[in-house]
């Protein structure tokens, strides 16, 4: 994600001698249509949108208006050219592929691929940055996030969040319009119509295929359900409940328990059975396409996998009991009091790096970021943000978060973040 800045100056500096030569009285030869265009090499060989690439070769054209360059078939902006040097800017969303240069009727294609590295662009979907309560559009809305809430999405791209400080469930449309789904704002327990229902510091939330919402109503030790028609009911009483997940294959419901460090299946009669354990203080949970569970151990700063068949838990990323911000192989990577988790269609994991009802760490936490864990290899990388806290939208390393606690993906692959310290909902798209 740093390639844009890193390579911005190099191609221009390398072009300077040629440009100065062009200031002399001698005329720089133009493209010769009877001679093939030559691509000898290009540098850098990988980068993201906005990366400037220097192409070495021959029979280019010093008039940029007559030169067309594509990367993987996507047109690029040519920013400088002389007879044997050409600079272009990698276009948005190009993908990896060959570099093609066309001048007049002549075309040449590189023998090697340019490797496109997608960068993440972070924007603010909703939230004023101030703690409070207000429905409305975008920056007019206000939340009161407190220590460990999660976030979920439905098939239409709507986002749902647990607003613990306001004891409400909130909805954000793709356009950023915030409304209250359920909860009257008074902390307590009350089933019934959504507008009069009461919650008490809800943390976890999930959406099923029929748009029913399931809420881990933490301080009530209850699993609640909200129908699309706006009826709230209690499905089960579960001590220390922190999150809920629905099996997309069959609709079964599971919940996590913070203190016991267990994952339980919720039966139709409200009873529960333990299907996973081995965590010390369990935050959010996720389930992959094969029915395996993934849980975030908040106190010991690791990500664990519970095998669907054996029910055994193994650590896939993080070093138990050690905190930090280190990418790399799962068994050496480090996290710092992680809390949120979600999974994509390829079973890759996304971790919200900061949070938890007792051990969040807040501004002293080193992980003001979203981490990415590659399925199967468990290689860990930083997806967006970093160790510095603050607030800034932007591309790649320019984006800054403050104590993100929840993360969720939509059907199109966009990533949503409950940015607790900034009292905002952020959106990340890969470009």
TrEMBL record:
Keywords of the record: Repeat
Pfam families: NHL, TIG
Keyword Ligase attached: no
Keyword Repeat: yes
Family annotation (SUPFAM superfamilies): E set domains (SSF81296), NHL repeat (SSF101898)
Family annotation (InterPro entries): 6-blade_b-propeller_TolB-like, Ig-like_fold, Ig_E-set, IPT_dom, NHL_repeat
Domain IPT/TIG: 36-117
PANTHER family (alphabetical): NHL DOMAIN-CONTAINING PROTEIN (PTHR13833:SF71), PTHR13833
UniProt protein name: IPT/TIG domain-containing protein
Source organism of the structure: Chitinophaga defluvii
